Amino acid sequence: MQVIVNSDHHITGDETLHERVQTIVEDALDRFADRITRVEVFLSDEAGGKHGAKDKRCVMEARPSGLRQVAASNEAPTVLEAIEGAAHKLQRALGHALGKANASSPKGPPAAEEATVDELEQLEKWQKERGSRV
Hints:
Helix content: 40-55%
Order of helices and strands: EHEEEHH
Structural class: alpha+beta
CATH superfamily: Ribosome hibernation promotion factor-like
Strand content: 15-25%
Number of domains: 1
């Protein structure tokens, strides 16, 4: 799973931030890692450098293979809190989206539990014999 981090000019996107984002995303989405091709993370300071409550914003977009993108966002007082909140929301959204995709896939018994034509004919024959004895 590839993690791409984008930030506006008010947030310093250094290597430490990229590593921290990658760790948070991988930890949160570990169970979906084989189904996701990439996650894009967008970090912004909504107040333009001024301090305020919930002025840091993180938007995450996951690209699951075979499905439309799934996105989540979070606003918080710090960049780290915004990232962690968005990762948690994305984890829930992916669980829901992939669960729906799995639920809509065709259901049926495993191939080992399917009966062959010969087995069905033997069953019908056995039922007829049993019915005539009772």
